Every structure is written in structure tokens, then in C-alpha cells.
Amino acid sequence: MPKVVGEQTCEVKVEGAWQAVTLTEARTVYGASSRRCPACHGQVKIAGNFTPTGGYTMYHWRRHPGCPLTPATFSGTPSQHPQAMG
Ligand SMILES: [Zn+2]
User: Fold this and answer.
1) What is the pTM of this model?
2) pLDDT at residue 52, rounded to an integer
3) Which domain holds residue 24?
4) Cα 54 to ligand 1 centroid, rounded to whole Å
5) Beta-bridge mates of residue 19
6) How far is the CA of 41 from the centre of ligand 1 (A)?
7) From 35, 39, 59, 62, which residue has the greatest number of CB atoms within 10 Å?
């Protein structure tokens, strides 16, 4: 579950277990950890979002039509990423 309502989360691998953190935490606290999408488990990268509202944005390394977190490419049917990180 997201720790902070309203902020995008991703999952980072900490001591062998995936846990949900905010994108800000992923960048500032878990900078060296693997990250994955909480919905499709595909590998993601996090970039600074240089808009007036600030914050970070999550990008998938490979787009996946089964991921509801990417509305632009979502097919309507959730499915796991073909290269999901375990
Ligand atoms: Zn995804």
C-alpha cells in the first residue's frame, strides 16, 4: 500500500524483499536498489520532473500494454510485464 496518499509509488528491492516506497524515497533513500513497477513488475527508472509541481516520474524501461499505470499505452487488460522482475 502507498505510504503517502497522492504520491506515485514504486517497489524497491531491499535485502531480498520488494517493498513499496514513494518515488522520492526511491531516489533519495534507495538510490542503488533495483526498482520495479508496483502494477506490472516491469523494471522502471525514475526521473526528476521539472515542472512547477516538482516531484518525480516513473518510466518503464520497456513499455507494456498490460500496465494500468501507463494510461497512454494501457490495453485495458492488466497483465504482468514479460520481463517482470522477481
Ligand atoms: Zn508497469
Assistant:
1) 0.84
2) 76
3) 1-86
4) 22
5) 12
6) 6
7) 35
**Residue 70 alpha carbon to ligand 1 centre in Å:** 7
What's the pLDDT at 55? Answer: 80
Nearest 5°: CA angle at 15, between 39 and 84?
A: 30
Residue for grid cell 523494471:
43
Overall number of domains in the chain:
1
81 Cα to the center of ligand 1, angstroms: 7
Q: pLDDT, tens digit, for every residue of 31-56?
A: 889 999 999 999 999 988 777 777 88
% the chain with pLDDT above 90:
71
State the alpha helices, DSSP H only, in 13-78.
Answer: 23-28
Show the DSSP H helices in the chain as ranges: 23-28
| Alpha carbon of 40 to ligand 1 centroid (Å) | 4
